[in-house]
Write a structure and sequence with these properties.
alpha+beta; Hypothetical protein af1432; 4 domains
Length: about 650
């Protein structure tokens, strides 16, 4: 790949600095123990050789390349100091990468990055109180942590800058994404490096006992990489089956994926986002597997039932993808690929609620449909299709994404037709939200038992290390958490008893709903509550009852969230307010009866939901289901008094 002047200057400068450091380190090598340096050299070459490479074709972008080489770099610093670390870091890459066929330019750059990151991390280790060759625990733990963070951050920054300058993408998103991926493995490698150094000090032969553990970890990562590749092939096959059901759409999803990928690359998006968009394009029509092949090939107008099946397929595609952890990013973009920029699409999603990623799919999907023969019309020419897109800018198509697509198809630089603000918006293309993150309070409350065990373990360990003040502190913390658990359990049982008392009587659905909401409002800062009836047949929901002191989420937003999350497992679904266009924390309780899921109790809290309330709702679910659900009584939905109550005080 031909480098831009900026990228070439950065690469050359990094290589010059890196090999300058290695040259200086070479002069100090004579004072280092040759046997220890040789042991580290053998270890780093071996770990560089046995690595699991990132798989760019996998649905989750393959993760990061995994090896234990960074652990050996850290061990070199702990045993011999920063300059030895620089030598070992550069040697591992230069000894192995060319044998794999890696270009020398890349090998030199990677060797320089490792040398600079190891050297800098080594000096941070010393500056924070660490002494190479002297590992005194627990005092050395903080310097090792500082070394690991510095090594990881500098390594990530240098590589991300090179990638950004080469592909003309923004640096900061790349750095954030890389740190999210790299930090956890690097912490694990730091643990391995520390163990390697300790064993090396004690007796180098003792390092042999680490080998079985390393082999097991390597095999686990290799199997994971294989699973990624097999999943990718299975999904590709599934997408091909959908395309091949209709000759007019043969290879349609593959072409959409190519259009989306090329446009994203030309707009300078990071590789990970390009890969995600490609998979969204490749899998966007999976839901058509539920549509009869005869309907897909129908030359005439579809009847109401057939049209309903067609309108259902984007949501079914989203639900199928949501079943895969790695595809959570793509699910919402796929669900909205038949929306319009003006909000007049399949599901009427407002412009502000449409993720930018979906507009890549909308324009690519529409363009391929227009230039392909379909049973109900002949194909348009390329120029005619581009003209249709231009006429639809701002109505059917996103103004920036649509204009960039047209420019690219006409041989122009798509970035040239966007304003600086539009280009920045596109390059900040944010990931569609996956599973909602629980607020800190709910996380602590849900894992209180784990925290109590942790305090117990910390106290026992402190006694074993003769840190009696720490043991007393851990005991106090553990006792306080036990008391909190007891109080919370009593509150939950009290609320549970109140709920059961209210639900014991045979009463209309709206009466039970009002009683439950009133109780909830007394025990928590409840801002909105709604009962949403769910129709699995067409994957839609409707709010039949609600009470609020603040504006609640829209029916469309709730339906979109719940159809993706309902199959995610668990008895409680949680979303942060911004995901639904509102403030606060939103919780949905699925009401499943003999005939399956057909209602949700949705609650919006100002900050968080108390654990006692969560426990009580879970315990009374068998009573809530018949009281609030609609099971075996379809006519109940039309019973007077069950219409939306409107915004009234809780």
């Amino acid at each position: 790949m031909r480098l831009s002047p900026k990228a070439r200057a950065f690469v050359v400068g990094t290589v010059a600095l890196g090999f300058g450091a290695v040259a200086v380190a070479a002069f100090t090598a004579a004072a280092m123990p040759l046997s220890t340096l040789a042991l580290l050299g053998a270890a780093v070459a071996l770990t560089e050789l046995f690595q699991v490479s990132a798989d760019e074709s996998s649905p989750d972008q393959g993760g990061s390349t995994f090896s234990f080489s960074s652990g050996v770099h850290i061990a070199a610093i702990l045993m011999l100091g920063p300059w030895a670390g620089a030598i070992v870091g550069a040697f591992g890459v230069l000894a192995v990468d060319p044998l794999r066929g890696s270009p020398w330019r890349r090998a030199l750059f990677n060797a320089s990055v490792f040398a600079l990151a190891t050297l800098t991390g080594g000096y941070v280790f010393q500056a924070t109180g660490g002494h190479p060759g002297q590992l005194q625990f627990p005092g050395v733990l903080l310097p090792i942590a500082a070394l690991t963070v510095t090594y990881t951050v500098l390594n990530t920054v240098l590589v991300s800058c090179a990638v950004a300058f080469t592909s003309a993408t923004s640096v900061l998103p790349l750095i954030r994404q890389s740190l999210d991926t790299e930090l956890s493995p690097k912490v694990a490698e730091a643990g391995f490096g520390t163990a390697f150094a300790v064993f090396g000090f004690y007796d180098p032969w003792a390092i042999i006992v680490l080998i079985p553990l390393l082999i097991a970890v390597y095999q686990a990562h290799a199997r994971l990489a294989l699973l990624r590749r097999e999943t990718a092939r299975a999904l590709e096959t599934f997408a091909n089956i959908v395309d091949e059901r209709d000759s007019s759409t043969y290879r349609h999803s593959a072409r959409v994926a190519e259009f989306v990928t090329e446009l994203a690359v030309r707009l300078g998006l990071p590789d990970a986002q390009v890969a995600r968009l490609r998979w969204a394009g490749r899998l966007h029509d999976l839901g058509k597997i539920s549509v009869d092949a005869g309907v897909l090939r129908r030359p005439g107008k579809l009847d109401d039932d057939e049209w309903a099946a067609m309108r259902r397929h984007p949501r079914l595609s989203a639900r199928l993808l949501r079943g895969f952890h790695f595809a959570s990013w793509e699910a919402q973009a796929v669900e909205y690929h038949h929306e319009r920029y003006d909000g007049a699409g399949y599901y009427g999603i407002a412009t502000a609620d449409q993720p930018l990623a979906s507009h890549f799919l909308i324009v690519a999907d529409s363009f391929d449909a227009m230039i392909s023969d379909r049973p109900y019309r002949t194909a348009l020419s390329k120029e005619q299709a581009l003209g249709e897109i231009e006429r639809g800018l701002g109505t059917q198509f996103h103004p920036a994404i649509g204009a960039a697509f047209v420019a690219w198809q006409r041989g122009l630089d798509p970035q040239s037709v966007l304003t600086a603000e539009q280009l920045l918006q596109v390059r900040r293309l944010s990931a569609v939200r996956g599973r909602s993150r629980l607020r800190l309070g709910m996380i602590v409350a849900r894992h209180l038992e784990l925290a109590i065990v942790g305090a117990t373990v910390a106290g026992l360990a402190a006694v074993g290390l003769h840190l009696f003040e720490v043991a007393v502190g851990a005991g106090v913390v553990g006792t306080a958490m036990l008391a909190w658990k007891y109080v919370r359990r009593r509150r939950a049982r009290g609320f549970e008893a109140e709920l059961r008392e209210q639900l014991a009587d045979s009463a209309p659905r709206n009466v039970h709903f009002n009683a439950v909401v009133s109780l909830l409002a007394r025990h928590a800062d409840l801002r909105w509550a709604g009962l949403l009836d769910w129709r699995e047949s067409d994957m839609t929901g409707s709010i039949v009852l609600e009470r609020s002191i603040a504006e609640g989420p829209t029916e469309v937003a709730l339906t979109s969230w719940l159809l993706r999350e309902a199959e995610a497992g668990g008895s409680l679904l949680v979303a942060d307010g911004p995901e639904l266009g509102r403030e606060g924390l939103h919780v949905a309780l699925p009401l499943r009866g003999p005939d399956g899921l057909n209602a949700f109790l949705v609650l919006a809290f100002a900050r968080t939901m108390p654990r006692a309330v969560e426990l009580a709702l879970g315990a009374t679910l068998p009573e809530l289901v018949p009281a609030l659900g609609v099971f075996g009584s379809p006519e109940l939905k039309d019973t007077p008094g069950l219409s939306v109550l409107g915004a009234v005080g809780l």
